[in-house]
Amino acid sequence: MGPDLGNYNRAETFQAADAPLLVVDTDLVIRDVNPAYLKATARSYDELIEIPIFEAFPDNPDDAHATGVASGSASFERVFRTARRDHLLHRYDIQSRDDPGTFVRRFWALVNSPLRDATGHLFGALHHVEDVTSTMEPIWDLGSSSSADLNMDQQTWNSLVTALTREALAHQQARMTAEQLQHALDSRVLIEQAKGMIAAREGISIDQAFARLRQHARRHNAILHDVARAVIELGLPV
User: Fold this and answer.
1) How far is CA 9 from CA 6, 12, 85, 211, in A?
2) Cα–Cα distance for residue pair 226/12, rounded to 1 Å
3) Residue 83 domain-assigned?
4) Which of 5, 8, 37, 233 is geometrically suited to a Cys-Cys bond with 20, CB 3.0 to 4.6 A?
5) Domain extent for 159
6) Residue 1 lies in a domain
């Protein structure tokens, strides 16, 4: 059983992001996934949620040299060990949607970013992937041929530059999304704490406490998490 993610709330930015994003806990169990990720991997929410990521996406059994699981596991391990973002560009075949027994060749640029709760505890990682198959596949095929074929023409070099540029952009977008998601998580924790304090102080239900919190924010044209912080830190009556 993975750690309790009771304070985790799916942020609107996570849902709306064009970037394919997935959240795993420190046991590498998938705890959330956004629509862009489902589209990129041709999977449904129910096929992935609460499933270990490398059970949902195993290596291609027909490829004796497959390293997707090994390199992916190593990336997550580095994130959890160092609490720093990790980048990877690799081949990782995925099962065909139409024929689960068949694997389709895919190349991915990915970024794994640490996720922390309000106390600073690292509870998982934000997994951002970009499918760069169309750019990397020709280069991979050249590298798999004889050395005489490795004299890349201008078009191939342009493809390589494009792949590296897309990877850099993917990393930048992942960093921005991770920061937005972290802000949303921190705000949710504050709001939950404030609701509990109001409910205990006033002898009312959690729902009633939240209604008061929201009404106060609207009445004073304030941001909800700022009001929640004032309740917690200053004892603001609402």
Assistant:
1) 8, 9, 21, 18
2) 18
3) yes
4) 37
5) 12-187
6) no
